[in-house]
Write a structure and sequence with these properties.
The protein is α/β, with parallel strands linked by helices. About 30% of the residues lie in helices and about 25% in strands.
Length: about 450
């Protein structure tokens, strides 16, 4: 049976970007149809409540890096509450040698830390006076070595990149992967001087909402997804959609998809796509090989996440955001997040929830490790790191993500140019999602708002 309908905007994907876009379009009075391949909304954002524990199976936190995040929560305040992290989250740990060391938070702690060499500690005094870089597509690693020194790369930036991108600073290009850092040097001449100048610049009242605090939603990030789902309306969302294809036509676009055994044909003058680059082949059959190439070449980090819940925590004090493990330390883990230490009601009183991350660009083969192999890594590495005598959690789950995080390398420029070209060639097609404009939750919310205000 074929069911044909018309709408104002079709949105491919009911993750954070797609739902936020649909929310703002509904506010404008537009009719939307959201098409999602999974049988649930939210994409990789999923919160699980089990045996007294609350944990995330995808992204665990976001950063209030722009006012759009705070404003979205304000609009949805009847159905979801913004939760910012306990101040303990400001403390970040880095593994070096045989112990954790706090990442310096100021000049005094920077002097005493064993993470960086004395040469680089003194060298940083000259950072504001170094010349701007001129190398096109300069990697994050090259930039940090040039401006800060090798030990800062090894024990600050490398683990940071693992925590954010699960990536390799030698591969990621600063201009695309860390545009704010890139702009500090190119607009102000320096990281240190630029940061100080930016703090002194007058801010609009709206900008004060971008506090840079770590955030979630009370009860877990699924609360935000459910609030967006309610705003959009389940009647406007097709779940479990298979064989979805987009085709341009005279009046815009025709999208065909199959859900619950029924083929739907939907027409609209506008299509917002939030799909990953790996899905473009089947989703856009009208694109030629040359047009698909920049998306097929987009590299993704694979990530394995292990959730561990303890009703009675007997390890080291968890008074920090978590710990990151530099590649130089030759471990099989990227880092550990201490979620229950900075968000409320994530574990029973006296207990703890840990999220352990493995694989990434550093060790892509770990995505195919068996549960037994993962267990061996945890017992060999996590137990001594966390000062445990044995690994006997009350709750344990393993999740694997083959297309976890896109890597913004040198090919990003070609991809961004192709997005502009395709949107010009096919008016009404908007290619969004994490293939551009950043990978964080704040980036996704800002992008969704931007495209619905400027391009619809």
């Amino acid at each position: 049976m074929n069911n044909t309908q018309n709408t104002d905007v079709i949105i491919i994907g009911a993750g954070l970007t797609g739902l936020t876009a649909a929310h703002y379009l509904k506010k404008q009075g537009k009719n939307v149809r959201v098409i999602e391949k999974n049988t649930h909304t939210g994409g990789v954002i999923q919160t699980v409540k089990e045996d007294g524990f609350t944990f995330e199976t995808g992204p665990n936190t976001g950063v209030l890096g722009n006012p759009d995040v705070a404003e979205l929560f304000e609009e949805l305040q009847k159905d979801v509450t913004l939760e910012t992290a306990d101040p303990a989250a400001k403390r970040r740990l880095i593994w070096k040698g045989k112990d954790w060391h706090a990442l310096p938070s100021g000049p005094i702690s920077a002097i005493g830390t064993p993470l960086f060499t004395w040469y680089d500690k003194f060298r940083i005094l000259g950072e504001p006076f170094r010349k701007k870089g001129t190398k096109p597509n300069e990697s994050v690693a090259d930039l940090v070595r040039r401006r800060l020194g090798k030990s800062f790369l090894d024990y600050a930036v490398n683990p940071f990149i693992s925590g954010v991108y699960a990536g390799d600073p030698e591969y990621l290009v600063t201009e695309f992967a860390l545009p704010k850092l890139f702009n500090l040097e190119h607009n102000y001449g320096s990281f240190v001087g630029g940061a100080m100048k930016k703090r002194k610049e007058p801010k609009e009242p709206r900008d004060e909402k971008a506090t840079r605090e770590v955030f979630s939603a009370k009860g877990g990030l699924a609360s935000l997804i459910k609030a967006l789902e309610k705003s959009v309306g389940l009647e406007s969302i097709t779940l479990g959609a298979e064989n979805t294809q987009v085709q341009p036509d005279r009046d815009g676009f025709t999208v065909t998809t199959t859900a619950d055994g029924e083929t739907q044909t939907i027409r609209a003058p506008k299509v917002i796509s939030t799909a990953g680059g790996h899905a473009f082949d089947s989703l856009y059959p009208f694109l030629v090989k040359e047009e698909l190439a920049p998306f097929k070449e987009l590299k993704y980090a694979t990530v394995t996440q292990v959730i561990l819940g303890f009703k009675n925590w007997k390890g080291m004090p968890l008074n920090a955001f978590g710990g990151l493990i530099p590649a130089k330390e030759n471990k099989n883990m990227l880092g550990v997040l201490f979620t229950s230490s900075f968000f409320q009601n994530r574990a029973p009183e006296g207990g703890a929830v840990l999220s352990v991350f493995m694989g990434g660009i550093r060790q892509p083969e770990m995505i195919d490790f068996s549960d037994e192999q993962i267990q061996q890594v945890l017992e060999k590495e996590l137990v001594p790191m966390m000062k445990l005598t044995e690994l006997k959690p009350d709750l344990q789950h393993i999740y694997r993500y083959r297309h976890a995080i896109p890597q913004y390398g040198a090919s990003s420029k070609e991809r961004f140019e192709m997005i502009d070209r395709l949107e010009g060639k096919y008016p009404g097609l908007i290619l969004a999602g994490n293939i551009r404009n950043g990978i964080g939750m704040a980036d996704r919310i800002k992008q969704a708002r931007m495209i619905t205000e400027k391009e619809i």
